[in-house]
Amino acid sequence: MVVTGAAGGIGRAICEQVAGLGARLVAVDADQVAGEQVAAAIREGGADACFVAADVSDAADTEAYVAQALTRFGRIDGLVANAGIEGVITPIADYPLEVFDRVLAINARGVFLGLKHVLPPMVAQRSGSIVNVASVSGTIGHVGHSAYVASKHAVVGLTRVAAAEVARHGVRVNALCPGPTSTRMMDAIEAQSGDGDAAATHREIAAKIPAQRYAEPQEVARVAAFLLGDDAAFVHGAAIAVDGGFTAAI
Q: What is the pLDDT of residue 195?
């Protein structure tokens, strides 16, 4: 099992969830210190895990983490393409081009490269499951979030294309679309929003969610584990919302 963005809130929760179910894990992240800590904690819990430092937007880094997974474990049964960044919150006319490009590189190009390099060994073994972590922003728009929304729509689109291409080979590709979740990313978004009152922004966002709260990372991780597992054997090309009813109420 390979998980990118393994050191983030959702990424770490997914690592812990799949390791607890017996997966052998390759944790991938650009943050070497935090990524090593995740892998070490997984090993301390009794599971087999290693860490690979990588920029998922870099083709050579992607080839390297795939090669290390295949060398260490001989096959890749699952990939969770979770690495992502939020960018800034500002109108399109003011959005910095370099930030837009970086968000698209990590969030969309990174998923494309993961698919490009993980699908061939999965097709060859005629089995495997890929979960691309998109967002509710992959299905709706948010004012001021042009790069993030564009990148997550791209993730959903890539997921559907890949699913249609490889289903006949026994490989599944699906997207996970979390709503607001208690992570560093949402902390950063709250800090950028409104008049700088992060607590007030949190309350305002939570009030728009029918469940009246943010998701916990573990709640997202459990759905990712379902999509990776055999119970989701006939789920192909889906974009599964884990959002407390947020998009249902739009």
A: 75
pLDDT at 21: 96
Opening angle at CA 97, ends 102 and 190, nearest 5: 70
CATH assignment of 2-179+215-241, among 3.90.420.10, 3.40.190.10, 3.30.457.10, 3.40.50.720: 3.40.50.720
Other CB atoms within 10 A of residue 163 CB: 20
Is 65 among the residues known to form the active site?
no
What whole-number distance in Å separates Cα of residue 45 and Cα of residue 112? 32
Domain boundaries of the chain, sorted by first residue: 2-179+215-241
Question: In Å, what is the CA distance from 201 to each residue of 101, 184, 192?
Answer: 27, 15, 9
Percent of the chain with pLDDT over 90: 97
Whole-number pLDDT of residue 39:
98
CA–CA separation, 126 and 110 (whole Å): 23
Specify the pLDDT at position 196: 77
Looking at this protein, which amino acid is placed at residue 74?
Answer: G
Catalytic site residue from 65, 95, 148, 214: 148
Residue type at position 199? A
Q: Which residues of the chain have pLDDT under 50?
A: none
Residue 239 sits at the vertex; the CA angle it makes with 237 and 241, to the nearest 5 degrees, is 155
Q: Do residues 2 and 52 lie in contact, with contact meaning Cβ atoms separated by under 8 Å?
A: no
Closest CA to 85 of 14, 15, 155: 155
Strand partners, 128: 171
pTM beyond cutoff 0.90: yes
Angle (nearest 5°) at CA 26 between 99 and 11: 50
